[in-house]
Every structure is written in structure tokens, then in C-alpha cells.
Write a structure and sequence with these properties.
- The structure is a single chain.
- The protein has six helices and eight strands; from the N terminus they run H-H-E-E-H-H-H-H-E-E-E-E-E-E.
- By secondary structure, the chain is α+β, with helices and mostly antiparallel strands.
- It has one domain: Alpha-Beta Complex (endopeptidase fold (from Nostoc punctiforme)).
- Strands 3-8-4-5-6-7 form a six-stranded antiparallel beta sheet.
- The two termini are 25 Å apart.
């Protein structure tokens, strides 16, 4: 069952999204592609960072950091947005039972895929998971289980793979940000669309 927000998002996609959302998506996709020009070592260590606007060292990061940096490039601070929602709705998130945390932690919460999944479902649109590549649009966020309950996240961009015709994904699976045709390489666990704070 799709949320009302998800149904609205699907309807707006089919009828032509408002210009502001089209422009937001264009800028977000460009920011994600720009990330592929950066050299980033895959470092998953806990790091204390400023709040808001905090980031781990620019030459390090994990898959979530590419999403965070892409959104920050278009004026959306996921560190702040996720933290504020978790402060108000901590029980909705997995921190307490998965990481045994008793309260939000602005240093790390937004850098965890399961938390982003909850956040995008709550504050954006949770879209159908299908095997039809055409249903994944530029700007969409996709999460996977790499196996053994290891989560991963990437963003759909507007560049298509020559051999498959599918939109490619910008993600970091260990070798820094890459743009690759990997949509169906792993089990998809989530499909989301997020245009920033609802006041946007």
C-alpha cells in the first residue's frame, strides 16, 4: 500500500512534475554525477563531526556519504533533517534495537542506510520495488541488501548504460563514487524519492 505522498509523487511524475521539482532533480542528479570525479577512500569508522553541516574528511566516506554530499550540494542537509526527525520520532528508527542506542546521535545516524530508509519513507515517498527498469527515474534513491543483511544505497542518474539502456546508479561500494549499471545487481530493499524538506 502506497502512502498518500507516494501516490502524489507517482501522479506528478506521470503528468509532468512541477518545474521546481524538475529543477531540483536536475541539480541533484548533476551533483551525484559530479561526485564521481572525487577520490574517496572507503572508511566506515565513527567520526565526530560538527552539527549542522558536518561531514567526515572529504577524501573518505561510505555509500551514504555520497547521498549526503549530493543533497548538500543542492541545499539539503540530511544530517540536520534526519537528526530533527529522529529527535521527535526516535521509536520509528532502528537505532535502539539494531545498535543499542538510547538517543539520536547526529554524528552517525544519517550515515546509516537503515535510518535513511526510514527517513525517506517518512519524509519523502516510498515507491514500488519492481523489476521494470523504466520505473526507476533519475533522482530516485535505491537501497539493496548486498547479502548477509549488508545494506547499500545509491542514486539513479540520467545517464544510460549503452548495452542495457538502463539509467545508471551513482554509488560507493568500496572503490569511491562510481557511475555504474548496477540497478539489479543485488536484492532491492527500497525505492524512494525525496525533494528536501516538505516546506520546499
Amino acid at each position: 500500500m502506497l502512502s498518500a505522498c507516494a501516490l502524489w509523487s507517482l501522479a506528478s511524475t506521470q503528468s509532468g512534475a512541477p518545474a521546481s521539482r524538475q529543477e531540483f532533480t536536475r541539480r541533484l542528479v548533476a551533483a551525484a554525477i559530479e561526485r564521481t570525479h572525487h577520490s574517496v577512500r572507503y572508511v566506515s569508522a565513527y567520526v565526530r563531526i560538527p552539527y549542522p553541516g558536518g561531514d567526515v574528511p572529504s577524501d573518505t566516506g561510505v555509500c551514504t556519504d555520497e547521498i549526503i554530499r549530493s543533497y548538500r550540494a543542492v541545499g539539503v542537509d540530511l544530517q540536520k533533517e534526519v537528526h530533527e526527525d529522529m529527535v521527535q520520532n526516535f521509536a520509528e528508527y532502528l537505532n535502539k534495537r539494531r545498535w543499542l542506542l538510547a538517543r539520536p546521535d547526529a554524528n552517525i545516524d544519517h550515515r546509516r542506510v537503515p535510518n535513511l530508509m526510514v527517513f525517506f519513507h517518512r519524509m519523502g515517498a516510498s515507491l514500488p520495488i519492481t523489476s521494470r527498469a523504466e520505473e526507476y527515474a533519475p533522482g530516485d534513491l535505491v537501497t539493496w541488501d548486498l547479502g548477509g543483511n549488508v545494506p547499500h544505497i545509491g542514486i539513479v542518474v540520467d545517464q544510460k548504460a549503452r548495452w542495457s539502456g538502463r539509467y545508471m546508479i551513482v554509488h560507493n561500494i568500496g572503490e569511491g563514487p562510481r557511475m555504474e549499471d548496477v540497478l539489479f545487481n543485488w536484492k532491492i530493499t527500497g525505492h524512494y524519492r525525496y525533494f528536501g524538506p516538505r516546506s520546499r
